[in-house]
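From the pipeline queue, job 12 of 40. The input is one protein chain; the requested action is below.

Action: predict structure.
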Amino acid sequence: MKKGFMVLVAYLIGTVASAQVPFTKAATKEVMKKVADWQIANPNNGAEHDDLDWTHAALYMGMIDWAEIAEQEDGNDTYYKWLLKIGRKNHFQVGKWMYHADFIAVGQPFIDLYKKYKQEKMIMPVMARANWVVEHPAKTTLELDYGKLETLDRWAWCDALFMAPPVYAKLYALTGEKKYIKFMNKEYKATYDYLFDKEENLFYRDRRYFGKKEANGKKVFWGRGNGWVFAGLPLIIDNLPIDCDSRNYYIQLFVKMAEAVRKTQCEGGDWRTSLLDPDSYDMPENSCSAFMCYGIAWGLRNEYLAKRTYKPVLEKGWKSLVKAVHTDGKLGYIQPVGAAPKAAGRDATDVYGVGAFLLAGSELYKLIK
């Protein structure tokens, strides 16, 4: 009886708290600023992340979108200056590994900075890396094996579909050179054919999860892994012209995944680290939840998703995310670096989750009238 009463109290508190989250531009901007400022004041959160690795790439991408809002609405260029300082410190280089998707991801925000400031030094390193890969494509298998590092040379794990393809899409949009989109399409479709489950419309993280089952007997689909893919699709589609032959391919995939995302949302508005067995890890996973909200907000704004069906999903999702923001701006319930479902408590945070939150908030901000 006592346990049931406590559960009811917790539910009512959560319901009241979520009801207090207003969907206004002012409130959305306020919470984004709070989260962004905390992250800048607490670099790396004690984790050992290189400035140029994938973790920070995701953070910078969210920060780019937030910087644009802060500058346009308030004349505040603090966040652009922060990004420029990091870029200049590292000479706008990308990571060391020639082929690995994670090491070119940071090229995405650098391309965006180039589009704003028109300084060639911001784009030449990522363009040189992309040109090399396009002209000397890896010939390894998609059968990922951490004992054979060369199997990481192609997009053999679903996270890679967020890290690398948008770089090639952005370079194509910038230059009009079809070599970028031809390479992207070929490699993306190969990964899709290998890792996409057409029954669930979700991606396996990599080949090691084929045939594996969760405690409830369902297939293993990692929340953040699918969040990476779902959030990566808008970044690709936004850079493909309307008459681009492959644009519809990515839109159709986005719509399929959106329905799977909708179905796996929990009652409290969050998504869990294991999408088909949410009870295995009975707490939110907010890097996943933020990426899902970002994709849904983008889909609503661009009218790829029906408002009646998906607006409530977005509202519940954003309320859940905001509830996880501590009073000082720290965002909790972010699973640590990994490749499979694992628990993450309220105090767990990391830079890529903050980047995902800022992407989601920025897209919601554009959507709110």
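Job complete. The two ends are 46 Å apart (CA to CA).
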